[in-house]
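sanity check this chain:
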Amino acid sequence: MNYITFLGTGTSTGIPQIGCSCKVCTSTDPKDKRLRCAAYISINGNHFLIDAGPDLRQQLITNNITNVDAILLTHEHYDHVGGLDDIRPLGEVEIYGEKSVLNAVKRNMPYSFTEKKYPGVPRLQLNEIDIRPFSINGNTIIPIRIMHANLPILGFRIGNIAYLTDIKTLPDEEFNKLQNLDVLIINALRIEKHISHLSLDEAIHIAQIIGAKQTFFIHASHDLGLHEEIEQKLPLNIHYAYDNLTIYF
């Protein structure tokens, strides 16, 4: 059966945020504890990791994940690539990202790309992609161009599920790639508008235009609010995701 597990659903600071005593950061509800964003997709017997933030070790252990066929990187910000070193126990792993993203990985981890590597370094095979569809083990991956403020980044569609994180705007021509979705995953940072992320109202608006059977919001900050309160206010078939939630599709 195909499924996706939300390994992390928080923004770059995570929840609780260091030094904060707000009602979200001090909540005892496990659904209000959020690690940095990443997702694990199992489809047709293949296992894909989307992003690899600084909480990756904890996320893989918590969810007993020992098999990753490929890692799809949305962009180079540290909260999405800072955990790549932690994949070293998994053996050689294929990494897919745009040229600028792969260059950032090489800058961050030069020890993995020297001619003479010391024992135990992560074995990363870098694969450059652009907005053209590509295939991994017979699974078609459709990159979606999205804008993170002025930074062009990627979302991904695999089958009838699409994962769009750190989006602020979606070019008109990309909506055609998001038709007939079973599951849409998209960021909703907070209630107030933000320069580089969708607010809650903006995320609801885009989700309703796309019209997936189910939508799940991710990349939340403590300013979005308590899970229990926000979930009750959302339109039908739109949900506030939380860490370690698994959905089947």
User: Anything to note?
Assistant: The chain has a mean pLDDT of 97. The radius of gyration is 17 Å. Helices lie at 56-62, 78-81, 99-108, 200-210, 227-233. The chain has five helices and 14 strands.
